[in-house]
Amino acid sequence: MRHGRRVSSPKRTRSESAPLGRGWPTRPTVSAVGRSEKGKKAIHTVASRSHAGEPVLYGREFGLNEWLVDEQYERYLQDPGSVDQTWRDLFATPPPEAGRPARNGTTAAHDTDEATVKAVRVAALIHAYRVRGHLAADTDPLKAQHGAAHPELDLPAFGLRDEDLERTYVVDDFAGQVTMTLREVLKVLQESYCRTVGTQYMHIQSSQERRWIQQRIESPLPRPDRAEQLQILYRLGAAEAFETFLHTKYVGQKRYSLEGGESTIVLLDALLLCAIRHGVGEAVIGMAHRGRLNVLANIVGKSYAEIFREFEDATDIRSVQGSGDVKYHLGAEGTYRALDGGTIAVSVVANPSHLEIVGPVAQGVVRGKQDEAALKGDVFRVLPIVVHGDAAFAGQGVVCETLNMSQLPGYRTGGTVHIVVNNQLGFTTSPTSGRSSTYATDVARTIEAPVFHVNGDDPEAVVRIARLAFDYRQAFHKDVVVDLICYRRHGHSEVDDPSITQPAMYDRIDVRPSVRKLYAQALVTRGHIGEQQVEGALRDYRERLERAFVETRALPVPHSPKPVLHEDGPTPQVTTAITEATARHVIASQTHLPPGFTVHPRVLPQLHRRTTMLDAGTIDWATAETLAIGSLLLDGVAVRLAGQDSRRGTFGQRHAVLTDRRTGVEHTPLNTLGSHAADFAPYDSMLSELAALAFEYGYSLARPDALVLWEAQFGDFANGAQMVIDEYIASSEQKWGQRSGVTLLLPHGLEGQGPDHSSGRIERLLQLCAQGNMTVAMPTVPGNYFHLLRQQALSERSRPLVVFTPKSMLRLKAATSALPELTTGTFRPVIPDETTDAARIRRVLVCSGKVFYDLDAYRRSCDLSDTAIVRLERLYPFPEHEFSAELSRFPSDAEVRWVQEEPENQGAWSFVRPHLHRPANRPIGCISRPQAPAPAVGSARRHAGEQKDLVASAFR
């Protein structure tokens, strides 16, 4: 029966856990289950093979559960200690030869000790419950009938009968016992796996982890004491009263309520209490909008008055939030206070409506905080909690990307507690249309995370699972998932009518009492508390809400002046030059290797060349970057660099981490600058842009003191992270007052490599620029790149930086810098043309990036002294003052042209056109490729012809 959630059994695979081979080679296996021509189920048995390669039949069938024996044998072969003693005894016994006569005239198979075989069947039963007991668990609060049996868990499926119930069997420490009757075994199994919690953990490869979980869920369940019950009831009352209060006071306003899933507050409460007791210093919560206001009020401690002001639309728009955002997207920081006086810092990360994208942002925030704490020797002191929706958890790919990060060196955070608030419904989409898997959480099995499905209407079970999830995270530093199966009392938003698309489901919801009422009734029935206590606690909470509401309504409505906007001005100048001694100290690290370290023969010459560049005046891009990062480390500024192939560099230019050619040992030269230098953390990321960039953005929020660099393999690939750029990098300061100093390195340049390896989409980034929200630059010399990185790290005002970095220019001899460019001066937003006589100029070409070198080469080859080429190194904030000063050097009637490699409808032209026109006060021409839907052509020969024509046309 389906009530908005898939409850059917999985496709009939032989196991949900370890990949299987050919099965136990001494007995038959079920290889397929199909349908006969008459429509009846047919089991096709294939004889397994013995170690000698001959087919042998064991003689005792396990019916539907043949797969269990196969699975146990596979594990036994890999590690005998990973299976119970009963299985080890069976598999260690030489298999009987089929048909060999016994002394009494029967076959050896019939002479097998009955007790031993029965013990194996009981062991198989235990294993089956561990693997598939969750399918029979009572986890759905809307299900009409609870406790439905599953055919693979029936006794006959194991060759067991009712008369076996009172017999005693060896159970090998199951439930802490040596022997048990079959009836006792069944009772423990049903209590452990088939009540209001369904547990999936047998897919985990580690036998240590599986046993850890088994010991806890197969032990007698502790009953909460009266204080714990009152704590649960109070939290449920607070969650429910908050929602019903808003529902009655702000009719028709969207708030994405938690009604139907109020146990979420109980779950978070239990997690934070565990965190306090284990000395965790802080919790960071990432969540979408459903239930967010409730969490802010009842967990983070955001004042009711502040929330009410947001409903009254009375927030001062002149505040740090700029134009602001809707109330259910806002983040907050606060302190969670336990009833016993314990406290923990809690924050909720601001998020857009793109649901799951907040997940990797929260992970980045946590990793940043943890890295900072690690400097003091306090590892994993921050607990990440991510609250998901069921439809989004199954449907959005960024979830899988983020889960994949969980154990990677550059991204792990010591384990995240994932809470899926499972409404059993998307907006109006049922699970049968929203996912192909049995559960919304099945994607978490890819990282071997345990999944606990818990009935949201059993808050005591919710608390128990919250504690278990936290303990697992602390023990193994891995992700864990709590699937809180509940429902959504209203529609996707409060103005939506869900009965239009799910009428039967909402008929059941309409008549169902809230979880608070159900729990209170249960406590009263048990005699644990009285009716007066129930109503008293709820009345006290409602009175506090009412007082805050009255006070908010009494406040005068603020005027609506124009918001204060940031100016488009550049970042204030800071000293970015370094001393020659610093430069030489940094460069020396490139060839100062550990004893016996063997550098790859293709890399060693590059490192040696770096040591000669300072004196030769030929500092290339990789060396300038090394000097920028190394000098920042010596200044005490930590640097994090992440991206696909970033340690080596996409184009084999960086070599931030060296690998010993013989041993594979790694060495990071810039981490040998001395004990007082900050840490350099270069990481190769997984093959992702979306989650990877979101993570770095979050990291930059937590570490404003560090230079955080994300590098795209090619600038084109940043379009896979456009959501992060739009929703966070470009607009977070305006929406949430949230400042980030994340730096994007986007390799850019049309070089005949086709449409997908040419453009970092300059036009898209510039379209987002306003109110001084970020810096966009395309430097043409390594010295300017050096100053740009140091300026980004040392500036007091954080804002994102986007650098369109070179590809072919990395090794262009003309694109080098001398040491004095680094030891003097600063970043130059405009590089003037100092090679010409300004009075004789008839034409001024303005450009950015690699095309300058093509233009300059053409000018030199044709000996054209009447053309100046001015380089615009910073596109935003537009350097109007510097550009005007340079343009004023030339005759007022000189023609001004903008030159770009990109098609006319792409690149920087549409953005710079008005900025160029104002100081020029004359028509500005554009030399570019014709308008095109793709950034570049696919033919290298055609590209070369186009480039030649473009450069020549700039001088006509």
Task: Summarize, please.
By secondary structure, the chain is of the alpha/beta class.
Count of alpha and pi helical runs: 30
Strand content: 5-15%
Provide the gyration radius in Å: 34 Å
Strand order of the largest sheet: 5-11-12-10-9-6-8-7
Biggest beta sheet attributes: 8 strands, mixed
Mean pLDDT: 86
Q: Low-confidence segments, ≥5 residues, pLDDT <50? A: 1-60, 98-103, 107-111, 316-322, 560-565
Please provide a written account of the structure.
The protein is an alpha/beta fold. It is built from 30 helices and 26 strands. An 8-stranded mixed β-sheet has the order 5-11-12-10-9-6-8-7. The protein has a 7-stranded mixed β-sheet with strand order 16-13-17-18-20-19-24, with helices on both faces. β11 (451-455), α14 and β12 (480-485) form a beta-alpha-beta unit. The longest helix has 24 residues, at 226-249. The radius of gyration is 34 Å and the shape is globular. Residues 1-60, 98-103, 107-111, 316-322 and 560-565 have low confidence and may be disordered.
What are the SSEs and their pairings?
Blueprint: E1 29-35, E2 41-46, H1 66-78, H2 85-92, H3 114-132, E3 168-170, E4 179-181, H4 182-193, E5 197-200, H5 207-217, H6 226-249, H7 263-277, E6 282-287, H8 292-300, H9 304-311, E7 332-337, E8 343-348, H10 358-374, E9 382-389, H11 390-395, H12 397-405, E10 417-422, H13 431-434, E11 451-455, H14 459-476, E12 480-485, H15 503-511, H16 515-526, H17 531-554, H18 580-588, H19 604-616, H20 621-634, E13 639-643, E14 658-659, E15 666-667, E16 680-684, H21 690-702, E17 707-711, H22 722-729, H23 732-736, E18 743-747, H24 762-767, E19 775-777, H25 782-794, E20 801-805, H26 820-823, E21 830-831, E22 843-847, H27 851-862, E23 867-872, E24 874-876, H28 880-887, E25 895-903, H29 909-920, E26 924-929, H30 940-953
Parallel strand pairs: 6-8, 6-9, 9-10, 10-12, 11-12, 13-16, 13-17, 17-18, 18-20, 19-20, 22-23, 22-25, 25-26
Antiparallel strand pairs: 1-2, 3-4, 5-11, 7-8, 14-15, 19-24, 21-23
